[in-house]
Amino acid sequence: MRHKQLSQMPKTFALIFETGDEITDVLKRFATEQKLAGSSFKAIGALSFVKLGWFNWKTKKYQVAVELDEQVELLSLIGDIALKDQEPQIHAHLVVGRSDGTAHGGHLMQAKVRPTCELILTENPESMQKELDKDSGIALIRF
To answer: What is the pTM assigned to this prediction?
Structure first.
């Protein structure tokens, strides 16, 4: 992954992922290195593999909705980065398009880039913290 800072106020980066990069791993590493405590991002590109999830309210866990081991277009990726126990946590949803024109969307569990993913990340002026929500069993942003 290559990156370039585009703006200081607000701090904005362009991240260019390359073939083989796993989006969440690289993004979390970048957030840690840059000490990002609250950011939002959006991206487009293409993937060679994607695993999408959905939140099962009964089990209080994310479950795999679809796993595609094929070339797909990354039509939309949006998400945020917030801190949980002082570590950056990525929360993202995406939509991919298959060769037949069908689309699949859900919670990002895993995605491997091929050949590129172009992501624009903007840091918020204030940090965001996640805390465990007892009703859902997952960490949610709290103010």
So the answer is: 0.93
